[in-house]
């Protein structure tokens, strides 16, 4: 049994939901798993974990600044452990942008940091127009119109492939 920390950065909660699913998978495999926002993870004794996973969503082209800061602060520790990173974004709904080697946000982010995660994944996120503020709804609909995505302002669509999430959870469990 190993101890796994899944630390996340989530604005609307979807990345947190993905992390909760990963915890279910890991716990079913008999691992002790903690899921917490990145900020709260800072208060833990990170040395106590065998594997640390970081998950973060994209908003207007970027992960939240706390993600790179956490990585920078704890890079040496992360490198001593099993470690993984995943990103969540809407562009990943497109098959040609859905893999670590092809998702533009992940490619760019990895160029900006020097940490090389042992495991990488990209998940398509969730669209929830009714819950967005006016300006956000306007902007996302504009982006969707330009990329042939759904523009119905009532649309709530979960693009996440949950079987892919489960498979990633199992890969986490088999990390050395
Ligand atoms: C205001 C806003 C801006 C977003 N910007 C982008 C973006 O630039 N590129 C993208 O692929 N997805 C973008 N998304 C989609 C989110 O990444 C997606 O909804 C994800 O599921 C959000 O995860 P979270 O709830 O954990 O924050 C945006 C969503 C919102 C609400």
Poorly predicted segments: none
What structural category do the secondary elements indicate?
alpha/beta
Strand order of the largest sheet: 2-1-3-4-5
Largest sheet: 5 strands, parallel
Report the sheet-strand fraction. Answer: 15-25%
Name the CATH homologous superfamily of the largest domain: Flavodoxin domain
Tell me which CATH architecture of the largest domain applies here: 3-Layer(aba) Sandwich
Helix content: 25-40%
Oligomer: single chain
Give the termini distance in whole angstroms: 11 Å
Summarize model confidence as the mean pLDDT: 97
**Total strand segments:** 7
Bound molecules: flavin mononucleotide
The structural domain count equals: 2
Globally, the shape reads globular
Written account of the structure:
- The chain is 39% helix and 23% strand.
- The protein has 176 residues and is α/β, with parallel strands linked by helices.
- It has helices spanning 14-28, 38-41, 65-80, 104-112, 134-146, 162-173, and strands at residues 3-9, 32-37, 51-57, 82-89, 119-124, 126-128, 156-158.
- The strands form two sheets. The protein has a five-stranded parallel beta sheet, sandwiched between helices. Strands 6-7 form a two-stranded antiparallel ribbon.
- It has two domains: 3-125 and 161-173, Rossmann fold, CATH 3.40.50.360; 127-159, no CATH class.
- The protein starts with a strand and ends with a helix.
- Residues 10-15, 57-61, 88-91, 125-127, 132, 136, 140 line the site of flavin mononucleotide.
In short:
The protein has 6 helices and 7 strands, in the order E-H-E-H-E-H-E-H-E-E-H-E-H. The chain has 176 residues and is α/β, with parallel strands linked by helices. The mean pLDDT is 97.
């Amino acid at each position: 049994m190993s101890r796994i920390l899944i630390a996340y950065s989530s604005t609307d909660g979807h990345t947190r939901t993905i992390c909760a699913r990963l915890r279910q998978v890991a716990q079913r495999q008999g691992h002790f798993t903690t899921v917490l926002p990145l900020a709260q993870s800072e208060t833990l004794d990170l040395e106590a974990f065998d594997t640390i996973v970081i998950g973060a969503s994209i908003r207007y082209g970027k992960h939240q600044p706390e993600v790179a800061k956490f990585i920078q602060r704890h890079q040496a520790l992360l490198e001593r452990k099993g470690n993984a990173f995943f990103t969540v974004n809407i562009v990943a709904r497109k098959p040609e942008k859905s893999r670590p080697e092809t998702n533009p946000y992940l490619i760019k982010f990895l160029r900006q940091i020097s940490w090389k995660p042992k495991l990488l994944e990209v998940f398509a996120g969730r669209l929830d127009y009714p819950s967005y503020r006016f300006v956000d709804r306007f902007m996302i609909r504009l982006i969707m119109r330009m990329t042939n995505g759904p523009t119905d302002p009532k649309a709530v669509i979960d693009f996440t492939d949950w079987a892919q999430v489960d498979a990633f959870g199992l890969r986490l469990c088999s990390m050395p």
